[in-house]
Amino acid sequence: MPKANIMDIALKAGVSKTAVSFAFNDPGRLSEATVTKILAVAEEMGYSPDPIARSMSTGTTGTIGLLLPQPIPDMMRNPYFPEFIEGIGKVCTTSGLSLMLVPPLMGSVRRAIVNAAVDGFLTLGLEEHKSTMMVLRQRHVPFVTIDSDPIEGIPGVNVDDAGGAKKAMEHLLAQGHRAIHILAIRSGKRGNYEEYVGTLGARVQGYLQALLEYGLSIDSRHIKLTECENTEKGGVDCFQKIWRARQHPTAILAMSDIIAIGVIKAAHAEGIQIPQDLSIIGFDDIPLASLLTPALTTVAQPSIQKGLLAANTLVRMIAGSIKPVHHCLPTDLVLRKTVSVPPRAK
Amino acid sequence: MPKANIMDIALKAGVSKTAVSFAFNDPGRLSEATVTKILAVAEEMGYSPDPIARSMSTGTTGTIGLLLPQPIPDMMRNPYFPEFIEGIGKVCTTSGLSLMLVPPLMGSVRRAIVNAAVDGFLTLGLEEHKSTMMVLRQRHVPFVTIDSDPIEGIPGVNVDDAGGAKKAMEHLLAQGHRAIHILAIRSGKRGNYEEYVGTLGARVQGYLQALLEYGLSIDSRHIKLTECENTEKGGVDCFQKIWRARQHPTAILAMSDIIAIGVIKAAHAEGIQIPQDLSIIGFDDIPLASLLTPALTTVAQPSIQKGLLAANTLVRMIAGSIKPVHHCLPTDLVLRKTVSVPPRAK
DNA sequence: TTGTACGCGTTATCAA
DNA sequence: TTGATAACGCGTACAA
Fold first, then answer.
1. What are phi and psi of A183, to 5 degrees?
2. What is the pLDDT of residues B320-334, one digit of tens each?
3. Mutate which of B57, B63, B81 to disrupt the A interface (most A C-beta within 10 Å)?
């Protein structure tokens, strides 16, 4: 005897479908006796309303989707991500929503979008957002972009990536560093930083601005940029590659803390002293950053705040108020212990 | 012109609903010309099949639900959780699934269950699992329990909590500690450890076994157990309370690393040396544990493996194979730097 | 309290 | 081979 449906209950209880529906959703409109009776029958027959059918009728799911640029495991390995979700989660709690993690489906973000039964999407750092936006529009659900270049008419939440990046680079330059290796988060652009967009692009812009103040650029002799998988392992691998080369930088500027941590680990393994031999700056200020020894100098961004703000915006859009605002939250350089003057300056 | 539906497209393209459906789901059954035509019209009218309606028809959602015992933000604050999700995520990737985080809805786990449109549930450390199980059964979707006492007929994944806890306590006792403060994860039981079930119960059993070997028990003079919110802040608060008392323990045995980290932070703030003045053991072995200074001695559990195994089991159940196996993964004491002999023994 | 229309796409079954 | 017809899944909303 598989799933009983509303009709089975109605029949057995000697009432109408409507009555059964009321018993579950608006018991006040039925006599107490009928409600008890219906609920008893439902209990007995193991019935509970089908959420899909309900969504079909109400046109609502009680779920928001977080559209991910990468598979779930990759996202989870970066402690920045849970923090971000924490912010979204606060809104879920107050609004009674579930959160669906929507990773690319067989490698396709598009397929993921059209399949997800949600009331709205939060998109995180979408790369190819021309096409993706189109698909999102076709879905006719509201969405808010996060960490993407602002789009006219669509609410977005960003942080001041350029400003934060600039401060980080300025700090290194001010300390006297001139041989700096930038570890960029891997994109599809294979290091062609002129083509970078979104977060990546903004940060590179910040670096460039700072370099310019010192008459340098990313193409200068001892300034380098390479792309790095945004994981601890990515940082380890990149460091090893860097250290194998003839010329060593005096500072490494990582675009995420998790990369920076990989670098630190690999550096320690090589017996390199930080910051005496090598200075490092990260980005994000994940909780771990302050707990490391030495504590990581990094650019703080309000991750929780970002998630909260975006989710709040989405919830309001779902509720009907449509005011596509672009938010930009501040970033700040947090001076800790992984930066000093370069070795040869001592 | 709001959402076009399948009929609108059929009409405009001069074909039947069936043809439109085929164009999206099984293009091979249509002539190439019709497919192109239909897709063009769909594109033009901004149509994409409604996922809810599709689920209604197919009876499948392509989503699994992770049922949480607490709100999303609380879960995310414990680094153990993202690791666990990482394991689930691997299965999502290979099986093309989305993952729905299902927190209690207005405080009710039951309401959360009946509202979530998923193909199956993973339940994590459910407390009141008598009633919850009933609701889950009524939903007629497969589910796998994690970190709950094994239930006959329902697949479950656990780790050897008792064994790990025992090893931790034995280690402290072997080092000479006799004044030990256990920091339990908060339950509804207010410290009545005899009533503990699930993970909590198993760990306490482990502690008791070890204590017994030394002729001690949790009720012994210098052995104490208090409940602690499972967050860093919980650890901080508990430590402060403990240190305010007249008698100080020589060791603290925390039931999670995140609590242990809170304790360490608070201890450092008081100028207490670890492990010279106070030994600490955690539980979980989150990535952070090895990065701390001093590195945290803790009981490792295979979090990723746990998530992966549970999700895999669920996927198989959804696919139809029904073999309710109970898995128990191993735990191991990882000796690092936060335990030494007690101060007065020196 | 009830009857009934409705929401939307999928999938046998069947016709051309 | 290509495509159409019609039944189906399930609960909700509105008028009666």
1. -105, 100
2. 877 889 999 999 999
3. B63
